[in-house]
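SAMPLE LOG
Freezer: B-3
Tube label: C17
Construct: single chain, 411 aa
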Amino acid sequence: MRQRSLIAITATLAAGALTLTACGSRDEDGGGSSDSGNGGTTVVIGVDAPLTGDLSALGLGIKNSVDLAAKTANKEQYVEGITFKIEALDDQGQASVGQQNATKLVANKDVLGVVGPLNSSVGESMQKVFDTAKLVEVSPANTNPALTQGVDWQTKKVRPYKSYFRTATTDAIQGPFAAQYVYNDAKKKKVFVIDDKKTYGAGLAATFTEEFKKLGGKVVGTEHINPDSKDFNAVATKVKQSGADVVYYGGEYPQAGPLSKQIKEAGAKIPLVGGDGIYSADFIKLSGAAGTGDLATSVGAPVEELPSAKEFVANYKDAGYKEAFEAYGGYSYDSAWAIIEAVKKVVEDNDGKLPDDARSKVVDAMQNVSFDGVTGKVSFDEFGDATNKQLTVYSVKDGDWGTVKSGTFTG
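STRUCTURE (predicted):
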């Protein structure tokens, strides 16, 4: 398929109109509103992300990027007769709230696809709700392998839900990729592993640990932290006493920033390494000067450096969003565009209109979606996982994240 062009969106389109619900009467079977204000059909793309709280920086970047995709599709009239809108719900990073949001989105018959969530634990709570309703879900950020390959993914891969897809690669690749960099490139041989006990953090720490030990590295200590705490001095002391030359943290930036700072204050002048959950400007704010030299892996190549992303970066800026698109902006745009492509296919196959069973048809169409996106080639394998397996290592330097190495896991 052709690479879709991005149309510049003005700031007036972005301001105050990021969370939109469908207008007009809904049909009985689901498949869009009959009144979009221009004689066509309204299709709503749901968004679920943490829009408030500690993780809101990432969540708002997700929401804004989906909003930009919807407005770009409308500007281009990319799907004839269809107007796209978004309905964004705040999951606060909580699985129980995400499950409630999934139920709300299912109840809106105009919703034909959902982008999100950020957290793997939230994604886990939403999957069955969406799958029962045959409503497609595309996450730009979930990385836990079990979501697409089943709980026994290490020995037998079985796809649990047909309606779940993601544009981010998994921790089955990200954890080992980080281990290879830490051991082979950074020459660190003794690691202290910490996680926040959540689905994402614990899973990432486990895949890192397995690969690090396989390479010959030694795990000199492990610890779990309470993600609701900001006092990690006891753990920091254990890190110092362990003799570790590096810390690996499975979790997210609200805890990783203070943790890094307190480890250095305890006298362990060693880098903290984490996954995409710490790759945020807010990690640098929270860790302060102590964060210099810390490392993070993140999915894909740096969006700012991709030729395919230049228009996205420019148009996001022109749209006047108050918040940065952050680590998942490009993936969120591509997740939304995948839904738009699937809707386009369904409409074209049904003589220019949505069928009564539009939701299930969109799920089927998603499996074969393929296009050149912001983050590169976007398509999905038999499990619903992204076929793009690239990752990047970043390091904190001069108060910002800088690219250290991009590549794919070899193992």
